[in-house]
Amino acid sequence: DAGITQSPRYKITETGRQVTLMCHQTWSHSYMFWYRQDLGHGLRLIYYSAAADITDKGEVPDGYVVSRSKTENFPLTLESATRSQTSVYFCASRDREETQYFGPGTRLLVL
Amino acid sequence: DQQVKQNSPSLSVQEGRISILNCDYTNSMFDYFLWYKKYPAEGPTFLISISSIKDKNEDGRFTVFLNKSAKHLSLHIVPSQPGDSAVYFCAASRRNRDDKIIFGKGTRLHILP
To answer: pLDDT tens digit string along A46-74?
Structure first.
C-alpha cells in the first residue's frame, strides 16, 4: 500500500529491553522524522533525516538511536527502554517543500 | 524553551458557530506556518498552511491569519461541524534555513450539538 506505515502499532516491553520501532514510506520522500506525543507536551521531535545516511538530533534525542540505510525506512531504536519513554510515537515524511505526512503511530508502554 | 505556544488546551464551540484557535511563536526566523488536525488513534493530518509573505490563507471553511508583528496566528473554522472535534496542532518552520517543523502542544476542540 502506498503511504507511510509504522510497525508495530502497539508494543509492551520492560525496562532495560531494546525496542525498535519501524517506519516505512513509499513516496521516496527525502526527509523523515520521528516524534513522540505526550500529554502536556504535544509533538516533540526526536530525530530526523534529510536523506539516506544523514540523520540529526531533534528536541528530545536522549535514549534513542536512528539509522537510515535506505530512503524508504527510518527505524527508531530504544537501546534500553525506560518508563519515561512510554509514549505514542509518530513517524513522518516529506519532500523538500512539500506537506509533511504522518504515519498512524505506535503506542509504546514500558513497564 | 517553547517556540510555538498554544495557550488554550481546550475549546468548546457550538455547532454552526465560528471556532477560533490561537497560536503564538517566539522565533522571528520562522517563515512558514501550518495547522494539523489529529483524531484519536490516528496520525496528525495536514490542514492548512501560510507563508510569512502572506497574512491570510483560505481553504473552504478554514482560514489562517498571520500577524507577524505580534508573532501570532489563528485558525478560523466557519461554520463549525461535529467532525471538526479533534486536537489541532499549530506548527512553524524556517523553510529556507532548516528542515524541522516545530509543533505546539495542541488545542482540543469540542464541537457541541
So the answer is: 999 999 999 999 999 999 999 999 999 99
